Model the fold of this input.
Amino acid sequence: MSNIYSNTKNNIIKAAEIIKSGGLVAFPTETVYGLGANVYDAQAVSKIFAAKQRPKFDPLISHIADIDILHTYAATDERVFALAHRFWPGPLTFVLNRVEENPSIDLACSGLRTLTVRMPNHKIALDLIKASGVPIVAPSANKYQSISPTTARHVADGLGDSIDMILDGGACKVGVESTIIDLTGKNVVMLRAGGTAKEDIEEFLGEKVLINEGNPDLPTAPGQLLRHYAPKNTLRINVEKPYNDEYFIGFGEIDGDINLSKCGDLTEAAANLFAFLRIADEQASNGKIAIAPVPMSGLGLAINDRIKRASYKK
Ligand code: TXA
Ligand code: MG
Done:
């Protein structure tokens, strides 16, 4: 029996009951599918790590449905609210200092003094959070280091019966994870390129956003691990002419067996990326995939980040 459920009102209420009683629900967001639990329920949160087979506890992003609860949850200031009002709901995650009153979220934060939070731009996700009445922590709903899921079927293929319910919301529109920015210091620092373009944040703030790609041996974010989002086959990147035995993912005018975006649109390419890596994994008869160059602007930063990590050899 499948644990994929259509997104009816009743099923969303059922999903909220599961969250409230300590279970796990995979749900769609605009970026990728998340594997959600009640942030205040450490036992439920620990089940997330077991289902993902993450080797250790890593901090998780809290998803909220209302900007007004933010100050009860994390330390805020004018800059935080300005960014929230401009970019939420949307694919932008903030690293903020925790407020002291909530030790019950220690596991979700992996004991750090900071927490990460975002408001997803997806009606089903927002309805689920509201019906649950708590922030929902959710990493991407895939096994550790594998390709992130952008459909309910991807979640079921990867995590199967280890979760209570998968809410189906169709394909994710953005297709790469949220951009993560650290707002705990004077400068805004980007920890992960993602669905919100760095340029848009800079234009809004009127200042440069610094980049911290982290130390791969000691990542601040698992997304900073060298090997991540990995297909089963080998992946060669920045390829203009593939070898005959490679399954080729094209971009723009460099066409392939499949093309991320024939018209060179980075938004379309980001939305297709993870699903196409899965298709390539199935289709590559010789265990080899190659991918065309993608420009390093706008969402191209996030796309290049993901394919670089996906190409990293063990
Ligand atoms: O788009 C997204 O962000 C998706 C959807 C489901 O919302 N979620 C997602 O979660 O990508 P996950 O767990 O795959 O990635 C969250 C990243 C991790 O790399 C984690 O280490 C980092 O956020 N992170 C969480 N809390 C942090 C903190 N306090 N400081 C620095 N990094 C943190
Ligand atoms: Mg992930």
